[in-house]
């Protein structure tokens, strides 16, 4: 009987693969790794590339990952795939954008005006309800 | 009949409102199913990454990451996740009330608060409060992606790494079931790893490639992102569920008002007819 290891491939948005495999190949940052069952505990980053799961001699499932993490326990291989290609400068740009949005929107008072309009509308609806109530009492 | 006409037009307008609320209810119901599926789909990832974090916390790394070390609290950061649109009952206001209560406690302890908001509702609320907003993102739609929220997380993680904040929390609604959504405040940093489910005792550690610092940095960032993302999709499901319930009760209320108004209308009509008859009869008797 051949030895197998449990493999889970998940991304933040969905589960991609879960099952037993004889061997897993993954594009680790320092070069491709092949993982057999009872591998020593290891944790590493993944590069964008192809993960191949060899279920048996005939079946090999390929998956594309755009980076992520690989964790290995003797009987468990977990691949946490990223949903998009990530780089330090992209993260940085996103942070700057989020900050700018906060400042911009704070400076621009239109957000508050929208809020005021909404409140006025609510007030109007409440008054309508009240007048309906009064009408009902008068009629009843 | 002047009274009759007034009531009739009121009934017609309420009927129109009811049509709108009923349509919104049905849209929310179908969206809720989708957002709920999405919420469930993100669970395996957060479960797995949580497990790895637990393993890591119980391994014996030669390197201690700053995200794992507690320190005295002078300033905290919170990420508030709200919806973009209203008409979803008390969902957002309950969340803000809970946040405010917590903020007041911090205020008493002389702890300052930095806020990142997700969704226009939170932004409107905390912007009006003149709270210290450091980042904002909104209009993520019904299918948010994990890379949409990296900006605000990066702001907070950088602030933590540079010592500007000493703790980080995320505030969002938790989906209990369709009828119940519970606002929750969860601590993200410093990372608290729970107890291990399986037994991995003994002195062991991972092989880190390329090195512990880089791997831990990467992993902990992903961990925080996954929790915030999970909060976001969960809040989305809550929004649709709350809207469905709110719109259902609005439609029901509209139905009640219509039937009552109908009664008032009928009575007024009948009274008018009776009066007319009695006038004619009285007139005839006088002749």
Map the helices and strands.
The complex is a heterodimer of chains A (140) and B (287).
Chain A: E1 5-11, E2 15-21, E3 23-28, E4 31-35, E5 42-54, E6 60-73, E7 76-81, H1 88-107, H2 110-139
Parallel strand pairs in A: 1-7
Antiparallel strand pairs in A: 1-2, 3-4, 3-5, 5-6, 6-7
Chain B: H1 2-41, H2 43-58, E1 75-81, H3 91-108, E2 112-118, H4 120-128, E3 133-137, H5 150-161, E4 167-175, E5 181-189, E6 207-209, H6 212-286
Parallel strand pairs in B: 1-2, 1-4, 2-3
Antiparallel strand pairs in B: 4-5
Helix pairs in contact in B: 1-6, 2-6
Textual characterization of the structure:
The complex is a heterodimer of chains A (140) and B (287). By secondary structure, chain A is α+β, with helices and mostly antiparallel strands. Chain A folds into two domains: 5-81, F0F1 ATP synthase delta/epsilon subunit, N-terminal (ATP Synthase, domain 1, Sandwich); 88-139. In chain A, 36% of the residues lie in helices and 41% in strands. Chain A has a seven-stranded mixed beta sheet, with no helix packed on it. Chain B is α/β, with parallel strands linked by helices and 287 residues long. Chain B has a single domain (26-245), classed as Pyruvate Kinase, Chain: A, domain 1, CATH 3.40.1380.10. Helix content of chain B is 59%, strand content 14%. Chain B contains six helices and six strands; from the N terminus they run ααβαβαβαβββα. Chain B has helices spanning 2-41, 43-58, 91-108, 120-128, 150-161, 212-286, and strands spanning 75-81, 112-118, 133-137, 167-175, 181-189, 207-209. Chain B has a five-stranded mixed beta sheet, with helices on both faces. In chain B, helix 3 links the parallel strand 1 and strand 2. In chain B, helix 2 packs antiparallel against helix 6 (212-286). Chain B is elongated, with a radius of gyration of 28 Å. The mean pLDDT of chain B is 88. The chains are: A alpha+beta (140), B alpha/beta (287). Chains A and B meet through strand 1, strand 5, strand 6, helix 1 and helix 2 of A and helix 1, helix 2, helix 4, strand 3 and helix 5 of B.
